[in-house]
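Hi Y.,

Following your request, here is the sequence exactly as I used it, all 213 residues.
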Amino acid sequence: MRAFVLFVCLSVGCLAQRPQQCTSPALMSGGLSVSTQNEKLLAFAKYMYDALGQRIRLREFGFYENKTFHLDMLLLFKQGVVYKINSRNRTCCKKQLSADFHPLMIPKNATLLGQVVLGSSSGPGQGVLVNTWAGEMQLKKGIAKYMSTVTEFGCVPVSNLFHTDRRGWMVTSFYNNVIGLTDPGQLLPPPFCKDAQMEKEDGEDPVTFYDLF
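Below is the corresponding structure, written out as tokens. Let me know if you'd prefer a different format.
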């Protein structure tokens, strides 16, 4: 009987230690880098992420087909609007945002690939325990494959590999993540965007952060 009770306790302990699918903090700020296989894009951005209000602010610069670009974008998914902001000229370009909002999370059907320590486990503070997950998700234009790495504690995103037939592989790395919003006002359209009129699409822009969700 004692042996049975001990076996049950050990089994429960093992199950409790197995990594579980998770959802990242609803409010985050930080930096990220994005590079793509097919479109030869390399970009770096500061981001603000609000899953509660379904809002994302991106300030990015990078290289697309050997040409430099700068973008300041505010994506309001509930309103279906994206603002391209030029603070220097105090101008706004307002366009329709047709993409769905997908929160930063590990889906329930994701498969655990493994758990490792980034850095070193030899001493306190020398490493971070992370979990890597893989799976597929249905998009409007087909099936996408992904491989996501998040911290074991807090489910903070570390990196994401995302593949579609159209764009190939896209790699995103997150850094300097802060839980919370450093400046919530940045998730509101600037006053000079108030009278911006909805514009028609004039072709595709370089891949940006919202394409991942």
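Residues 1-16, 204-213 have pLDDT under 50 and may be disordered.

Thanks again,
Q.
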